[in-house]
Give the backbone structure.
Amino acid sequence: MFIFDLTPLIYGCYLSHQMKKIFLLFYSSLVLFSLEACKPLDPPPNVILILTDDQGWGDLSLNGNLDINTPNIDRLGTMGIRFDRFYVSPVCSPTRAELLTGRHHVRGGVYGTSAGGERLDEDEQTLAEVLKTAGYQTAAYGKWHNGMQAPYHPNSRGFDDFYGFCSGHWGNYYNPVLEHNGTLVRGDGFIIDDLTQRGIDFINKNKNKPFFLYLPYNTPHSPMQVPDRFWEKFKNKELRREGHRGPYKTQEQIDHARAALAMCENIDWNVGRIIEQLEKNNLIENTIVIYLSDNGPNGFRWNGEMKGIKGSTDEGGVRSPMMMQWLGKFPQGKVIKEIASGIDLLPTLVDIIGIDHKAKNTLDGKSLKPLITEENPSWKDRYIFNYWRGKLSVRNQNYRLDNTNQLFDMKVDPHQTNDISVEKPQILAQLKQQKIQWEKEVLSELPLKDERPFYIGHPSLQTTQIPARDGTATGSIKRSNRYPNCSYFTHWVNVNDSLVWNIAVPHSGDFEVTVYYSCAQDALGSVFELGFGKSKIKGQITEVHDSEEYGAAEDRVTRKESYVKDFKPLNLGVMHLEAGKGLLTLKGIKKTGEALMDFRLLLFKRLSMEDRD
């Protein structure tokens, strides 16, 4: 667009002085409008979502913990905004589902943390899908925990790049076996440092494009492993803060708290690395950085004397730190007192960014933009529901009705010590009715029985992992630990025992199949068979792989979950699978020693696909 200077022409005309002033004013406005129209639109902001695992509200120096120093995370709160009362679910996978969809986790089929209960229904629309449609580059690095096999896999849910693990728990944090877009790879160093480096590389690669970076860190979740340089500060530290609602009761609780705080300082260091990279690339003023945790603390450490820890629907189990920074756009140091929830994240970002988005499903969350950007927003009181395994708690701005229908005034009694249900019968009745209504309208969407199979060969991903976690053992076969995540099957002492999975093959095709096993010397020559329908393929153990469990030497506190060991891949060849549903069975044919093998994983790589719909 060309702008001509008409000033000499105006002054040369035979016009009154007043008319010349009017013409000049009109012309100046026209020029300014034209110049504004020529300006390119501001690029949409990048989004970085950092989610920690089992970090309590009290695990930050910003929130008054005298035993820890988290300057980088604290700075997100002082340079941006923070929510004083922000609520998530009591455990991992439900919170992840709610952050990604803006809907209560039970609506999306998430009812557990392993064995398929963590899967987010394939008809749910994720934040990554929304942003990808709007032109964003998307990546997730860390703990996914909303389904391992496609179409539940992150690469099937809007993320262009995924690096990490899909299970709810990982048994080793140093150079672990992870996956990159479905391919098994070996991690590089301590897992949180490694995930952060992936994030830094993603920022560098996409510095000229809008991007969404999801960093679901998996600490301070157990195993309690942390690099020496962070542990040295805490291993003999005298903790100034007491434990959960009183003094620490055991040495194990003290050691667990020390390890968790050391892991949180490692997280803080890595958050600093992300912020530093944004500053190096001049992206800090065009990036929304969000920081929160997935549930309350995973131990009996200080958490503001709130009632409940991880797994509880009380305040301490569901209150999360929540900071949002967008320099120059969000107020600095603003503390928002109104209650909010993880289900609000998706509608808030869509509103702030200005995406023209029509939700695929009805959202339960609401945009928090008025609370963030306005001084005195018009905001109605609301109800926030926290549910886990039959326990339901409801919170409004002033009160919490717990899962046993005890009522607490959270303004005067934030520690939930005095049940006022008798003194406040009207409030009690009101909140009980809200519970009844939520169970009827929301919880009813969760099927009584999970009949979803595990898919093999979904077209959105070439490889499919079928782990021990998702299988069922018969006979004498045992899990390495009662917690399924990151476990393996052992004690296969009866040749007639088997492992089974409920699967579906959406399209007929050929698959290269690999089994990951370990065995003793006397297992050489043992034979097993993998079958699905009429398709069967045999494998024979021709190499010994008698690996030992490890991880204890790196643990700062004795773990409750399974230790890990290395498993050897054995290529079984090509197996043809017909489309359909049924049981995938791994059974023994010949056992030459005391045990057939220990089993960790089946890996299917699609070679061809026949569309027979």
Remarks:
- The radius of gyration is 28 Å.
- The chain has three domains: 7-38, 46-385, 454-606.
